[in-house]
Each structure stands twice: as C-alpha cells, then as structure tokens.
Specification:
Number of helices: 17
Bound molecules: iron/sulfur cluster
Strand content: 5-15%
Helix content: 25-40%
Oligomer: single chain
CATH class of the largest domain: Alpha Beta
CATH superfamily of the largest domain: Aldolase class I
CATH topology of the largest domain: TIM Barrel
Structural class: alpha/beta
Length: 439
C-alpha cells in the first residue's frame, strides 16, 4: 500500500502537476505553494464534504461525521493529508485526523476536563497547579485538530488567539508569583501564531526575572513543518532558552520535512522533546513505538514521554489499558538504546498530576540483598552496602540532613508517611477533636 507521496513519484514536499490516483484535491500545486505554510493553512480540509471527495469513508457515514464536527471541528493540512494512505480504512495517520463514528458514539463517555485544568485557573487561560510551573493557553487554534486532543473542550470556543489584554493579565499573575520559574506556552498550537504575537508572549515572559524556563507545546513540526521558518526561528533564538515539546505518534510522521523542521529548531538553540500519546489503532504496539523513537533519535529529537490517553469525552476508542503501556515499556527496555526509551506516564484524573509507570524489576528487597530481574528474565541478587540506610549531613552547605523517614518505614518504626498539611487527615483530626468530651 502506498502513501499519496509514493504514488506521486516526486520528491517529498513537491506534489506538483500530478493527478493523484486516490484523489488529493490539489493536482496542480507548485513546489513553492506546497512549501509555504500560508498556502497550507489556506487549503486546509475543514468539511466532511471535502473529505467525501477523497473516498476515504462510506458516504452513509457522512451525516454522522457531520454531527461530530458540529461539536469538534475538523482541520487537516494538505501536508498531513498527504501522509495518509487513503485506501486504508485503518490508517494510523488518518485515525488522528479524520473523525470516526466511534468519536460520535463515545461522546457520552469521559469528561471535558478530566485533568481539572480549569479548576486551577486563577486567570482565564492560565493553569497554576504545581508550585514552580504554570501553563498558558495562548490560542485555541491548531492547523490540524487531532481527534485525540486532551483540550478538545476549548475548540467550541472558537479559533481565536488570546488578546494582548488577556496575555497581560497572565503576565501580571506570573509576575506576582515569584515561585513560578517554568512556564509552558500551549494552546491550541502557539507556533501557528504570527511571529509578532509569539514575540509579544516570549518578550513578556522574559521581562519577568524569576521565569527561567519557557517550554512550548506544539504539533507544528508534525502537521505543518514548513511553518518552522527563518522568521519563527529568529524569534525563538532571541528569547531562549526555550524548549519545544512536540508530539510525533507514528514513525510515518517523521518525514524529511519534519526532520528539517526539527533541525532548524535545533540550530536556533531550541532542544526538541517528543511527547507521544499512546493511541489504540495508531501506535499501541511495541514495534511501532520502537521504530518511532529510533527515527526520532536519528532526527536528534529526544523521546521524552509516552502519555496514557486521557479519559476525555469522545476519546474512549483511543484509550488502551495501562497494561498495554507497560507491555510496550517492557519490550523496549534492553531491546533498544536507553535514549530511545521514554517515560510512560498517566496524568491521573482530578488534577493529581503525572504518575510514571514502569514494569516491576524489583522482585524483593531485604536489608542485605535486593532481588532484581533483567529484561531477559534473568533474576539477580544485588548486595546492598552494609550501612544503616541513614543519609549523612551536609556539613559544607550547613543544610540539615534529610529526615530518614523511609528508613523508619522500612524498619517498622512507623507505619505510614503522610505529607504535612494533608487535608483529609486534618478533617479526621477535627472530627476526632469535636467528638471528644470537653473537660
Ligand atoms: S495540536 Fe495539540 S492542542 Fe492542537 S489539537 Fe493537536 S493535541 Fe490538541
């Protein structure tokens, strides 16, 4: 089976003057047009009518899919569309871009905001959950709307970017909270903003002395790589250090154009990390993830996270069991370079944050020996050092030694460790106090 590009038999990024046998709707696009992100944005597929012409899904599904996009709109760049094997009904690239009846039937399952970003939003668009980090949603617009998007709830609000007034309110909050040292600029896709607006955001953040790290969450290198141009890179370089976190989910997305886009970012001093989402029917197989991460390493992109798909409304058909993620991690460790192994994490509902999950390599742990297993199933006894497990003090810095609480837990001296200020325990204490007779 061939992609549209292979059918063309012309170099990548130049579907020029060819009639595509599976129906790409731009038979006469020039190379210059194709490589111009403005042309790509102007020619996005945005209606089911556009898709029907591609003969990708049965016509009888058109009504149903129309109802899906009434709620969750549709947009596919010509570039991303050209990666799809339109004659494969189970194509993993199409699955990320083209709505399916499952999306419609799954709309009653899940929540709009399972991570409760809105509940930790002191200023519209800014989530402040962890002490030293915050998230800015600077636009609702994406050049390609991923069907598996966690932030689908913001799509019906329209395709607007935040105004300067709204951004200034976010800067004001960050300025007042000196504990914030790391800001994630996200959306929507921030790299779809005009370079001048992006510069406004980065300049605003750089004026705040305690902001040390700026991270940008974007799928632009994957779905619109021609947008990573000199103008954009100059802005990113000017306000560095900046990290880009992107989302390649399948090895077929790592094209020559995508590699070039990542290379440009790197040359502008912007390291690129990848945050894949584990998606049923897209990449829920160890070999796909292994190939993806190997391709990414060759493009000097670090495989950083493999995210469990969130339980967002309409995403149930993408979700895998946690055991699938563990199976993938088990198949990677020892079978590929450690650099190609991401952290598998689940962002737990209710705003509990990210929890890393991995296969269990510790079979038992005693005072003198720990029994481990390796990736081949070989079981090894590891001899522990003969100390009492206590950490020594830090005389040079004058800092007190950490309290050896875990040691006390292991010796049975205490039964549980409960963080100070735990509200549930405080409630219990208050209940006990109010129930005890007064003297
Ligand atoms: S690019 Fe990111 S924000 Fe936009 S639809 Fe995809 S996952 Fe969602």
């Amino acid at each position: 089976m061939k992609t549209n590009r292979e059918n063309d038999s012309v170099p990548l990024g130049s579907i020029s003057s060819h009639t595509n046998p599976v129906g790409l709707p731009w038979p006469r696009v020039t190379r210059e047009e194709w490589n111009d992100y403005r042309w790509q944005l102007a020619h996005r597929i945005t209606s089911i009518g556009d898709l029907s012409g591609l003969r990708y899904f049965p016509r009888e599904e058109a009504d149903l899919l129309g109802r899906v996009i009434d709620t969750y709109h549709l947009s596919i760049t010509p570039y991303y569309l050209s990666l799809i094997r339109l004659d494969d009904p189970d194509d993993p690239i199409a699955r990320q871009a083209i709505p399916s009846p499952d999306e419609y039937y799954g709309m009653e399952v899940g929540e709009d905001d399972p991570l409760e970003e809105e509940k930790d939003m002191p200023v519209p668009g800014l989530t402040h959950r962890y002490p030293d980090r915050c998230l800015m949603v600077v636009t609702n617009f994406c050049s390609m709307y991923c069907r598996h998007c966690t932030r689908k709830r913001i799509w019906p609000l329209g395709e607007a970017a935040k105004t300067e007034f709204e951004l200034n309110k976010m800067f004001g909050y960050i300025r007042r909270h000196e504990e914030i040292r790391d800001v994630i600029v996200s959306g929507g896709d921030p790299l779809t903003l005009p370079a001048s607006r992006l510069e406004f955001i980065l300049k605003g953040l750089r004026k705040i002395p305690h902001v040390e790290i700026i991270r940008i969450g974007t799928r632009t290198p994957v779905v619109l790589p021609m947008r990573i141009d000199d103008e954009l890179c100059a802005v990113l370089e000017k306000y560095g250090p900046i990290w880009v976190n992107t989302q390649f989910n399948h090895p077929r997305e790592v094209t020559a154009e995508a590699r070039r886009a990542c290379e440009r970012l790197l040359r502008a001093g912007v390291p690129v990390n990848n945050q894949s989402v584990l998606l049923k029917g897209v990449n829920d197989h160890p070999e796909i993830i292994r190939q993806l991460n190997t391709q990414l390493l060759k493009a000097k992109v670090r495989p950083y996270y493999l995210f469990q798909c969130d339980r967002v409304r309409g995403l149930e058909h993408f979700r895998t069991r946690l055991s699938k993620g563990i199976e993938i991690m088990e198949a990677l460790r020892g079978h590929t370079s450690g650099l190609a192994i991401p952290s598998y994490v689940v962002d737990v509902p209710g705003g509990g944050g990210k929890i890393p999950l991995m296969p269990n390599y510790i079979l038992s742990m005693g005072e003198q020996r720990t029994v481990l297993r390796n990736y081949e199933g070989i079981i090894v006894s590891y001899e522990e050092p003969q100390d009492d497990g206590r950490l020594s003090a830090f005389p040079e810095t004058g800092r007190p030694a950490p309290r050896p609480d875990v040691y006390r837990l292991m010796t049975g001296e205490i039964q549980a460790l409960i963080p100070a200020g735990n509200e549930r325990m405080a409630k219990r204490r208050r209940r006990c106090e109010s129930a005890s007779p007064t003297t």
